[in-house]
Every structure is written in structure tokens, then in C-alpha cells.
Prior knowledge:
Order of helices and strands of chain A: EHEHEHEHEEHEHEHHEEHEEH
Strand content of chain A: 15-25%
Low-confidence stretches of chain A: none
Number of domains of chain A: 2
CATH superfamily of the largest domain in chain B: Aldolase class I
Largest sheet of chain A: 7 strands, parallel
CATH class of the largest domain in chain A: Alpha Beta
Number of helices of chain A: 10
Helix content of chain A: 40-55%
Oligomer: heterodimer
CATH superfamily of the largest domain in chain A: Dihydrodipicolinate Reductase, domain 2
Low-confidence stretches of chain B: 340-344
Largest interface: A-B, 34 and 33 residues
CATH topology of the largest domain in chain B: TIM Barrel
Strand content of chain B: 5-15%
Structural class of chain B: alpha/beta
Shape of chain A: globular
Amino acid sequence: MKKKKINIAILGTGNIGTDLLIKVMRSAFLNCSLFVGRNLNSKGISKAINLGVTVSDRSIDILKENPDLYDLVFDATSAMQHIQHAKIFKELNKLVIDLTPARVGILCVPSVNLAESLLENNINTITCGGQASIPLAYALGIVHHSIEYIEVVSAIASKSAGPGTRVNLDEYIETTEKGIQMFSKCKKSKVILILNPADPCIDMQTTIQAAIIDPDMNSITNEVNKMVEKIQKFVPGYQLVVPPTFEGKRVIMTVRVKGLGDYLPTYAGNLDIINCAAITIAEEYSKTLTSTKSRK
Amino acid sequence: MKRKIYIHDVSLRDGSHAISHKLSKEQIVLYCQAAEKAGVPSVEVGHGNGLGASSLQVGFSVLEDFEMLTIARENLKKTKLAIHVMPGFATINKDLRKAFDIGVDLVREACHCTEADITERHIAFAREKGKEVIGALMMTHMASKEILLEEALKMQSFGAEGIVLYDSAGAYLPGDVKEKISFLVSNLNIPVGFHAHNNLGMAIANSITAVESGAQIIDGAIRGFGAGAGNAQLEVLVAVLQKLEYNTGISLYKILDAAEIAQEQILEELPSIKNLSIISGLSGVFSGFAKHVSRLAKEYELDPRDIFIELGRRKVVAGQEDLIVEVALDLKKLNSTNNINLNG
């Protein structure tokens, strides 16, 4: 018998929203009932029309007027906009998975706190750099308690950063820093984002550096490898390219994220890592919906 | 007398690269006082990569941003206090607000030359707070004049009151300067400037070419004190511009005094064009990478020139210092497996 899919809406038709749409269309648990933005001529909307998805240029208003059409909504607009949207979805009592760095709801890294996150009505997927680095920072935090300082530098291809990402650089930094601290329990964190214009485009790359005086490299390597394996289950292109290395008073490691090439080519691993996280959360939610019907 | 040229002094910011961001309180006091006496219009202070950049990635500064700015503020009266800010490193809430509270006058809002739209919010915020804002396009050897104009126009529309083209890798020759600067000058309503590096020995020549192509703002550093091979040597600029009868408003004797103070009290060594600077200029890689490359080359027993050339091939930009480790590891692997000679 065919499983019943839950209906989802996607708000925001930029790079993130459109890539998400393609991933949703592959999901055995999710059905995109509405794909909404502000401009019917945008590339994202055209793509959606070609895919036969219902679209609208009335953005948040159409979602407000038709709450029965969807069970959960992905917000892929911008941090400033999400702060407004969050109030509306709260009133409508809809679960929202927020892909902006607005940090209104619980910060969720699926490989670490998925179950706990599903108890909330607003789940924030932090940032692409956060999804790439926080699980590894968490692994470091398992081995070394209260690390003095963790620093995360992500480089993404310019072409993969749409207007929403560009206008949200400050929120990106502050939200990722917060996430690193919360999950690793380190004392201080610093996050840097580089947009790399190189042509051909570079793959998304994230380096985690931790100031640890006397690191237990065996345990670190072990925890990191376990975590990488876990992440690879839902982000196949997630790869440790520099294994944990002790160099000049710091432990440094680098991951590269190749995307699936759904909307943008494979260099845009930044879209995949955050969208795969969002899909994982939504699918897990759909399972809870179909098994029990009760939510807080 | 010909027209006025605005000289912007980056010694205490770009020079930070040359001393691994170890500026001390005394050094900032001494230099700010000397620059003030010489009538330098503005002095930029901070970590080499700007506000909020102190990090493992690009090196920690000894003094925090806000200590440096406070000290400089106390010692600058007529001379403006300036900062270099790159979105992606610094944020409004963590960094800009505090810098403005300290009393920064002038903001160089900087980004890689094709990414101007990331500066929109910072520029708007700084203008709203009544600050003077200049848009800084970096690594401009990597983009055509048409693209540079497009990006400059974006910054102008956000509120920038001038645009400076940075030759961050010291890769320009005078012909490139003439082409790009004159194109921007004839298409923008705001002043245009040039920020030189001396990797190929062209810093002064390029700066003068910029002036003769219509640039109104020229960056210089005392004794050339800046990343890699250094910047356009400020006191030489003042002398040459004086000879060409441009008006900089800077006293030549007093800027020469400042140069002596800096040489004795701040510089660890005089900037010179070392082999690696030449290679970095040729490969178009940001000059600030030199120290990291040398350190890692030693550690992994590699030829630093190979590292630079590989970095150039991968088109790295400032801030991607972590890639040096990866390149070093890759080259090491190559060397040990099949002994390939990359100098070819």
C-alpha cells in the first residue's frame, strides 16, 4: 500500500528554496503543495512550474489564507523576513523549519538533537557552515570538555550564494557562532565566511580549528570518524579531506561538501548540507504525524 | 599647483601583516602622533585583515581591535581614524557598533572585487551613523574593468562616497592601472582611488599612473610597511606627488620624520621584494599569505614557491588561509609518492 505523504509548503524561491523543492519531490514522505515567492518570473518559480508544482507570487499571504493546504512549511527567505513570518506560523500553529539564520526557534543539527528538536514548533537549521561544522565541534566536545576556543571558516562558491545569503552574512556569523558554542560547550567561538568567486566554482569547504593544549588525537579521530559516517547517511557528498591534525597548538580538520547537483551544480554543497538537514527533520516529523496524531 | 590628492595611510593596518599583527600600544601612540604632525588626512588602524579578523585562520593580533582603536583615537585629532571592514569577518553587532562608539571617522568597507552586494548593510549602517564610507574592492587584478564598474556602482548605490581598487596581490602593471582607473573615473560620480602592493616593484609607478588617470585617493604605508613586499611607500609618494606639483597637504619633512620613527620603533625589517613576493605577484595570490606559506613550507619540507603556484592555480582569495594546509599536505603526498618536480 502506498504511504500517505504529508503536504509541505516552501516559502522563498531562491537557491535554497528551489533546491529544497527538488529534494522534496524525491522524498517518499513529503509532497510539495505550494511553492511561493514574490516574483512569477523568478528562476525558481519557472522551475517549479515546469515540475508541475502549484506556485504563487503572493508569498506569506497565500500561506496565511490557506493553512489547510500544508502540514509544515519551510522558510527559505531571509532572517529579517523570518522574524515576521514566525509570528504568523505560530498563530496558525504550523510547524516551521526555518532555513534562515534568524535563530527564532531551536537550533537543530539532525545528527545530534533531532528528537529533541521535533518537540518544538519552530526548528532552525542554523546555517550551511553550521551544519557542516557543528557535528564535528560536538565530537570534539565529547573528547575535550570546555575547549577554550573553536574557530570555523567556510568558503563557498560565490555563485551558490543568492541575495538572501548575501544580505544575511552578519546573522550567518552570529548564529553559527552560537551553535558552535551550544553544541560543543566551548568557551569561545569565531566564525568566518568567505565567498569565493573562482571560476570554475570551488566546492563548499569548511575548516574547524580548535585550541586544545594536549589533544587526545586517537579519541578525537575516532569520534570525528563516527560523526562523519552518520552525516554521510543523509549528505552523501560530505567528506573529511583533512583528518584531525595537530598543528601549531591547534587541532585542525577540513571537510568538503559536494552537492547532489539538484538545482545548482555539485559545487553548491552549502545548499545540500542545510537542505538535507531540513528534509531529514521534515521526514522524521512526517513519521511522528502518521504514527501518533498528537503534538504539543 | 595641480589638483588635491587624498593620501590614506594604511601603515597601522596593512603593516600589521608584516609583524604578524603584533602592534603594541606604544607603537600606535608614536605613529599616530607622527602622522598627525605631518598632516596625514587619515590613518587606518587594526588587524591586517581588518576589524573582527583576529583569528587562528589569519593570525591573532596581540591587542584587541578595540584597544587599538581606543589608543589611536586618543592620539588623533585632525587626522581621521579609519578602519578596514570585511563582511564575513566582522558584523555590525559584534564589531561595527563598538568601533563607532570609540569614535572611528572613516570606514573602508571591503570585499573581494566581485562581491560588492555583501557590503550593502554595513555601508548603509555606517552612513546612517554619520560615518564617511569608502568602498574597497580587493584583488582587482582578477576582474575586468566592466565588472569592476558594475560592482563599484553597487557600492555607490549603497552609499559609498568613494571607491578604491586594491591590487592586493601586487599583480598590476601601469597599463592595467591606467585602463581600470580611467574607466572607473569616467563612469562614476564619486572619487576613485588605488591601493598598491609592491610585489613586482611597481607600487609607486602604479600609484602615480592612477593619479594621472584621474584617481583622487591613493593609499600608502610608511616605508612601504604592509603585507608581502609592502605597499606604496608613503613618504616617497608625498615626494613624487610634490615634484609633480600635486597637493597632498602632507609636510614632506614631517612625514620623513614619521618614517624614521616607524623604522626604529615599529618595523621588524624594511619591506623588500623577496623571491616569494615576486612569485605571489606573478601567480596573483594575496600578499598576506607569504608568512603562512613560509611556515608551512618549512614544517612540511616543501618549496614555498610550489605552494604559491598551486594556490594561484586554485585561485584562492584572502581569508582562505586554511587551504594552505591542504595544499601543503597534497604536495607532500605528491612528492613522496612519485617525486614529481612541480617546478617543471
